[in-house]
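Data availability excerpt. The first of two example chains:
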Amino acid sequence: MKTLIAAYSGVLRGTGSNILSALQDVFWFSKSKFEKQLQIISVLQWVLSFLVLGVTCSIILVYILCTDCWAIAALYVAWLVFDWDTPMKGGRRSPWVRNWAMWQYFRDYFPIRLVKTHNLPTNRNYIFGYHPHGIMGFGAFCNFGTEATGVSQKFPGIRPYLATLAGNFRIPILRDYLMSGGICPVNRHSIDFILSKNGTGNAVIIVVGGAAESLNCTPGKNLVILKNRKGFVKLALQHGADLVPVYSFGENEVYKQVIFEEGCWGRWVQKKFQKYIGFAPCVFHGRGLFSSNTWGLIPYPNPITTVVGEPITIPKTAHPTQREIDLYHSMYVSSLSKLFDKYKAKFGLPETEVLEVN
């Protein structure tokens, strides 16, 4: 308002040419504020989808079955039965959904960047190990579940498949939403299909640390659960898929979490959920919807930079020995540590920072 008054005063004083620049300043401010609101809405949409979409869709479906519109729900249930195995066979990705403009606002909120360090030949298949998990894996989703950061342009000919909990694909509506982004179940059948019956140029992205790693995600901490996670290495050997370490700097900085100590009741509850349901409930908070000074579910707008490292060539071995698995696992751990050390200072960490591997 002060800018407009000053510009109007300038017109009265005979300096009316100033009004154009003044109006441009006001328009820029309004546009910038509007874009920021769109960014917050796009992030909130994904947070709510992550937390409650599955439960909400299930409740709505059951409710519709109890109304006069039950035939619509019955048709969907019939389709669900018919389509049940699709997630295990590469899913049903939609380039249209992956290129929604909403994902660009999602990307710009933090912002999120994808850094390519090496070319990936299209005559090979790949398993990307993504670290760390974070609370919701914003970097993994934005970089590999959408085209917001240009993954298909940076790695032409490579089809990314972000792997997540298989239970999500048993939930109506949510399963279709996830598949549209090229997201698949993180189980043996699904990954076997992608790496053996879907040609070459496929990249399965596995968040190796999983639910256990999410329990230790807190700002300022760079810790990965990896020492005893060797199943992805065995899969790589069985299919001759190259292993690619991926580290997301800033993934742990977007939420603040209450870390329960080992042995306390809180950690006991989290581990029981992890064991029997597949995920661990985290006690966390971000900023509020309308103010950054209040608590809420919106993540803090801190940069996330995902660096894709150099592929490790893996031979195809139908029945790998434990010694072979251990060898390539140690190579992978070493490669991940080198990737972290090489880029940590460039993306805001001190040179003395060490990646903790548990």
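And the second chain:
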Amino acid sequence: MFFLQELMQPKSGANGTAVTEFILLGLVDTPGLLPLVFVLFFFAYLLTVGGNLSILAAILVEPKLHTPMYFFLGNLSVLDVGCITVTVPSMLGRLLSHKRAVPYGACLTQLFFFHLLVGVDCFLLTAMAYDRFLAICRPLTYSTRMSQMVQKILVAVSWACAFTNALTHTVAISTLHFCGPNVINHFYCDLPQLFPLSCSSTQLNELLLFAVGFIMAGTPMALIVTSYAHVAATVLRIRSAEGRKKAFSTCGSHLTVVGIFYGSGVFNYMRLGSTKLSDKDKAVGIFNTVINPMLNPVIYSLRNPDVQGALWRVITGKRSLT
């Protein structure tokens, strides 16, 4: 407990002063647009939370969806609710109060939980790719290789790795001295936004971000690509066109989510050399924290009759006949 309290205390710079809060400028500078921004993000938040919790409810109540793939999807829905909750409610609160200041400790806390949830998201997408690999390429041993115990272990390992990653970056950023500028041209706290404000060198922190990022993102991405390379090779050997279509349809939604997740993430963290944050960075931030979690329920239910049927039964209160 003492360690955490010490971690959240700002460090003094060379002149003896320390930044105790950061000023988040938000998304727009025009006061007249603030009510519109509030309404848009408020409804986006409600839609995202409602959509993901509906997917989770559908998975829990529909026996057809009690499979490993939907077990991981249910966990992903919980993470999406967490990711948007870490950033959007605090932004809405600042819009209502017209206060842009965020305490140093609150900023680091937001950074920690954001990296924790995104990290788990990253590993869960890998587990889902592995599940598709086993289901399509190793169907005879699928039930034993992807047992309930294996599913729980994969989720537990995902949380442990993501927690280690998030804590590493939070401890590393807490060693930096913030003694001068404290204005962040963004709507939430993250490493690319904090590095330019440091009075001390961030070279080691940036190297750490790239090194750990390679492990946290590069390794899962390589495993996903390898899994789907085997899946594609197996599916192409299926003689029936209908069989190939059915096999690929189970992977399409997941590949779409992976593409959006990694595409926006790479753009966000590969721009650390930029000294000035632009509107493009804010747009990528919106994509990471709002659009991705909002789109995932739509992507996974759009072409999935089982999920659509389960969602309809959740909405209408009807029970499944099976």
